[in-house]
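Thread: Newbie trying to understand structure tokens

Hi all, I'm a second-year student working on a class project, and my supervisor (Dr. K.) asked me to get a predicted structure for one chain before our next meeting. I've only ever worked with sequences, so writing a 3D structure as a token string is new to me. If someone could post the tokens and maybe explain what I'm looking at, I'd be very grateful. Here's the chain:
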Amino acid sequence: MHDESTIGTRLRALRRWRGMTLTALADLSGLSQGFLSKVENGKAALDRRSHISAVAGALEVSETDLIGAPHLSRDPVQSAPHAAIPAVRAALMSNTLTRPAADHARPLAELVAEMGRIDRSEYKYIQVGESLPAVLGELHVHAAAPADEAAQRLALETLIEAFQTATWAAKDLGYADLAGIAAMRADEVARTLGDPISKGKAATLRIHTMPGGARDLALAAAEEAADALEPHAGTDTAIHVLGMIVLAAALSATVTYRHERAEDWLGRAADLASRVPDTPGVNWGAFSKTNVGVWQVSLATERGESGAALLEVAEAVDEDRLQPRRGRHAVFLADVGRGLARDKRTRDEAVRWLRHAERVAPHKIRNSAAVHETVATLLTQAKATGVGRELRGMAARMGMAH
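---
Reply by user tm_fold:
Sure, no problem. This is what the structure looks like when written as tokens:
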């Protein structure tokens, strides 16, 4: 039975609520009626950003309405990270740069070190819940009443890193609005600091949290941010930040079907990556030659690549260099698995890639809406008993009917 939590089931309900036929939805979204029918019946995954945006726009609903709100399963690895969200939300919304909610703070150097530990944590989402809310509050204390100008700049710079962590944690767990708030707070701090690198860091968050209906605006924002930072890209950190903006531009171009433009941005990213060490575990945003390869796989998956063609792109990625970035490594593995799942000749291999992704970062993969959709679709398609067992196990851990 098709899982009630899948996009296909919600798509059918929303389409009927709108009083819309599949033919009408196909005409409005630009997707085929046959494909949409397969999505509704759990036989095809709606996991490409461009497709989700097109369907949500045609139905005049938000992407969250279509994808579904964050859900909790009985699996503690899947559900535990969500416990961090209320405290993070409170910290983001109760502190300002002139009026912190906390009345005291640990030494600034200690807070900077704590942010480093959060960023390097193997199970980052758990660490976010345990440490980030307090760090956010205390950094606001130092920003509002600094010991001197240098201390204030350090507090503000560290706040941007904290807001970045909050943005990605909220986005990955399905709290899009909260991720947007964190990105806007980072932008506020960057404008206060005024330097190009801080503005570039905040720009990456703003671009990635723009709603699906603003894809063209996201591309324009990414290109504007890249042009603004380019003259200042004289240090490794500046190149890292510029590289991540360029990759965001490539993603935005891909989602809006400007594939030649996306290739140009990917080429620019590769050129920037050649100017810095290939150390994704150290570089800001993990920007590096290896991470550009990871993005090439991600964008190929977004374009609809599948089977052997996608594997060829993935083979160029040195997985050993990704080991320090477990979340990034897991997303790479999952992107390959999602692409392989589209070709019936590589579905068995898709399950192996998805299971590998889950083993690398279970907390991240079990909360991934895209992986959830692929697993649900594979479960409907599965025939072989062995494959079914693997998929049923993943489905159970992700809170799906199996």
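A couple of things are worth pointing out once you decode it. Residues 149-172 form the longest helix (24 residues). The mean pLDDT is 92. Feel free to ask follow-ups in this thread.
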